[in-house]
Amino acid sequence: MKLNPALDRYDHVLLDLDGCLWLGDEALPDAPAAVALLREAGKGIGFLTNDARHAPEDFVRRLWRLGFQAAGDEVVTCGAALQFALASRGADGGATAYVVGATALVDHVAEAGLRIVNNTEFATRADVVVVAAHDRFDYRELKVATQAVLRGAELVGVTRDRTFPMPDGPWPASGPLLAAVEEATGTKATFTVGKPEVAMYDAARDRLGAGRYLAVGDCVDTDVAGAARAGMDSALVLSGSTGSEEARRAEPKPTHVADSLAALVIF
Length: 267
Known about the structure:
It is a single chain. By secondary structure, the protein is α/β, with parallel strands linked by helices. The chain has 2 domains: 5-50 and 195-265, Rossmann fold (3-Layer(aba) Sandwich), CATH 3.40.50; 90-185, Rossmann fold. It contains 10 helices and 14 strands. The chain has helices at 31-40, 56-65, 78-89, 103-111, 139-150, 174-185, 198-208, 220-229, 244-249, 261-265, and strands at residues 12-16, 22-23, 26-27, 44-49, 75-77, 96-100, 115-116, 128-131, 154-157, 163-164, 171-172, 213-217, 233-237, 256-258. A hairpin with a 6-residue loop joins strand 10 and strand 11. Helix 3 (78-89) runs parallel beside helix 4 (103-111) and helix 5 crosses helix 6. The mean pLDDT is 95.
């Protein structure tokens, strides 16, 4: 196997996970071999994901289990990006947060210095409401988040992704949940941090260093648009959310289009 000569000019490659490396709990065909070939060619590797349901160390374990080599500092999650964004503002004298999200996201918000008030009588009086998709989302969370925002809480979203690819078809991502709270309260989130926001790419640059980057993913709205905002070339793979016709119409246009990561990397 040889590296595609079109990738010779890149020093670092940023890889999306869902729809690029795997679908559900199975690696996509030859994706582990493609990542291994990138490493053999001396490329810096970063794994970027808008999945807020799991901690970075969970993704490292999953990458290894599915056949990919990975180190903890190579994984940039939107939860970690949110933690950095909240911490950079400084904790406001014990500011409180109500978090719609998985345990991993709750931990990121707590590590940013906010006091979590989930499952307390103060939940509807939180200073900040954070919203992300998770597997146990229920109506009660929507109700509490709505009441807290209507009482003056700042609304923060992790991403606006509509869906993410799974073997049985698309699943709803964080965007629909955030939209529900915005619709219920008439309030727009003050910010989000996941792709296509530049924060994710800046975090990767901070870890990998200077050089020319290629960002690879399966979604035009997040992966291609995010790379463009960050001033990076992009590669759109058709193994996840985007079909060939949508890829043809994509704006911004990706630098490269391939059927899969393996088709992009292996010559």
